[in-house]
Amino acid sequence: MLSNGHATCLRMPGRLAHRSLGTAPRTQLLSNNAALRSISTTTCASVSRRSVTSTRTSASTFAPTLRTAPLRRTLTTSAPRSSQKPFSFLTAYAFQGKPRHSEDVTQEGDSSFSAAADESEASASGAAEDGAKRGQIGFPADSEIGRWRDELLRGGEAGEDSLMCTSMGSAGDVAIGVADGVGGWTENGIDPSLFSQALMFYASKAAASAPTDGNGAPNRILAEAFEHVLKEPLVVAGSATACILTMDASNGTLHSANLGDSGFVILRQGTGKHGVFHASPPQQLGFNTPLQLAKLPKEWIQEGSISNTPKDAAAWECTLQHGDLIIVGTDGLFDNVDAKIEIPQFAKFIKEKHHASYAARHAGADKPTDSLQEDREFVQVLATNLVEYAKICQNSTTKQSPFEREAARYGIHFPGGKIDDVAIVCCLVIER
């Protein structure tokens, strides 16, 4: 990261400069009732979002709206099965870029995007039918990284965020991750999405070619990707946070490497107060100043410049279980949706609603319903709607956000959500 001098890249959003100092009010975690009523439970690839200029409806307490049916024991409908491959991973991703121009703010009908990933290939198999018409930022469409990005996003736009979801060899292992380009670089004429897109592109290549002898750990994938970014001529400068997870299909082992304020949460029924098995803590040097990988031209390096390396990433591992749900996201999610309360409640709500919808759609069918297909749909529906909910929370000034609480710790009054790009990858663990 850079210092506060010539080329600062600290995250200090424009809205913050217009907020008065003080103590944030201690309000409850709230949700938009109308938003929950409009949540989709089908496999549509996109859901319309409210314009950031739309009138906000009143909020109501979050938890009571979720108890629409008895809670299921796990977030999967599939029962554990036995085979030579004990685990498979059902993955899907969704994303939405924040408005960058005045016409984006007033435009109606913008959509967030999601795509399912096949459990064996972990490659995108879904696409948004009606994409955002805004110009794509980042790498040119005719470049290798640009083609990879466009195939991944399928007409959508993730802004300064990027993501990956790829298989690791033929054993069913999977690597997923997100990166968030630090937006402060725009003040120096640098496109922040170049760094994040390059980092995830090279991370996906490193993961796909990783050996099966344990050398495909996420910290090694991140290190290899970062080395390529430093050599990438189209990335003149930039920085990004990053979070990469790998999952072993043979034994269910998850490894993670997290640098900055992107992160992940693992939901497991029966653990913790809300079924949260683990939530990765953010790595920050101060308020809104995360650790980050950086590429700094020599003439821009100053005393106090901050430039982290993959060795600074926090490593963590665990053994997964059948029904575990993993959600990886950039800070556009975690700054606006509480990881330990809202996300598990939201996931249960979506599971219950989708299960009822799936059963109704297949009522009277000659063949019994396919629980694995239901789970595949659920993961995609969850990713899509979680992005939608995060965007609604960003535009609220009445619901207390995690970012608001963090700002209050530093004596800053910042009511409501923080508008930002959002990128999410969801993964449901199935014991086969």
From TrEMBL:
Keywords attached to this entry: Hydrolase, Magnesium, Manganese, Metal-binding, Protein phosphatase
Record keyword Metal-binding present: yes
Domain PPM-type phosphatase, residue spans: 136-429
InterPro entries, A to Z: PPM-type-like_dom_sf, PPM-type_phosphatase-like_dom, PPTC7
Top-tier EC class: hydrolase
Gene3D superfamilies per record: PPM-type phosphatase domain
Enzyme Commission code: 3.1.3.16
Catalytic activity: O-phospho-L-seryl-[protein] + H2O = L-seryl-[protein] + phosphate; O-phospho-L-threonyl-[protein] + H2O = L-threonyl-[protein] + phosphate
SUPFAM superfamilies noted in UniProt: PP2C-like
Reported cofactor(s): Mg(2+); Mn(2+)
Region annotated Disordered, chain positions: 99-139
Skewed-composition ranges (Low complexity): 108-129
Similarity remark: Belongs to the PP2C family.
Name assigned to this protein: Protein phosphatase
Source organism of the structure: Pseudozyma antarctica (Yeast)
